[in-house]
Amino acid sequence: MEKQGWMENVPDAAEVMKDWKPPRSIQAPTDASIRRMSRRQCWKGLQLMDREGKALGVVTSKPFACGELICDFHSRLISREQGLQIHQNTEAGHLFFFISKNGQGMCLDAHEERCHCHPNKSTFGRQIKHSAKRTNLSPRLHFVEDDPVILFMATRDIQTGKEIRYDYGDHRRSYAGDGLDLMPA
């Protein structure tokens, strides 16, 4: 700045450092916290928003850092074969195919508006919209006491008021109910 001859609006490094705060650290979720949040379905920092001409979407009400746990995909667990039968007759966006620990094809079926264990809530994971190009979430397969849980992690920093999206994977040639290549969380 001195070399360029700046005379005004020159920041003082000491003042900048005095007000600087390091970015918040991301703590890896524990099995107990994942189980608790999944059971309660009280994911903080999310809200459902009605978009004009579109179905409900999930929007952030607080910022999330890259790698942070956002929510889960919560629904009824069925076999891959049952999921394929449903897939032939309905929209694929409410099915989530994956491979269990023992190599068995499984599916989470969220076609019902309300799940049997949370009849008074519409779960956030069910309402997350598809985007192949503007995705900001990545699903991760996690096991809590051998029970499969699909977790959504932020793939980049997400600011307040942004809609969250992930790639359903159903437009891939290899889909056929095989689902995404999920990595354990």
What topology emerges from the helices and strands here?
Blueprint: H1 13-19, H2 31-40, E1 46-50, E2 56-60, E3 69-73, E4 76-79, H3 80-89, E5 95-99, E6 105-109, H4 124-127, E7 129-130, E8 137-144, E9 147-154, E10 165-166
Parallel strand pairs: 7-10
Antiparallel strand pairs: 1-2, 3-9, 4-6, 5-6, 8-9
Structure description:
The protein is an alpha+beta fold and 185 residues long. Strand 1 and strand 2 (56-60) form a beta hairpin. The chain is built from 4 helices and 10 strands, in the order H-H-E-E-E-E-H-E-E-H-E-E-E-E. The strands form 4 sheets. Strands 3-9-8 form a 3-stranded antiparallel sheet. It has a 3-stranded antiparallel sheet with strand order 4-6-5, covered by helices on one side. 23% of the residues are buried. It has one domain (28-166): Beta-clip-like (Beta Complex).
Q: Mean pLDDT score, rounded?
A: 79
Bin the helical content.
Answer: 10-25%
CATH architecture: Beta Complex
The CATH superfamily turns out to be SET domain
Q: Give me the CATH fold name.
A: Beta-clip-like
| Gyration radius, rounded | 20 Å
Q: How would you characterize the largest beta sheet? A: 3 strands, antiparallel
Q: Based on helices, strands and strand pairing, what is the structural class? A: alpha+beta
State the low-pLDDT regions, or none: none
Task: State the end-to-end distance.
Answer: 46 Å
Strand line-up in the sheet with most strands: 3-9-8
Shape: elongated
Order of helices and strands: HHEEEEHEEHEEEE
| Number of distinct beta strands | 10
Tally of helical segments: 4
The first-level CATH class is given as: Mainly Beta
GO molecular function: histone H4K20 methyltransferase activity
Protein name: N-lysine methyltransferase SETD8-A-like
Organism: Sinocyclocheilus grahami
Domain SET: 44-169
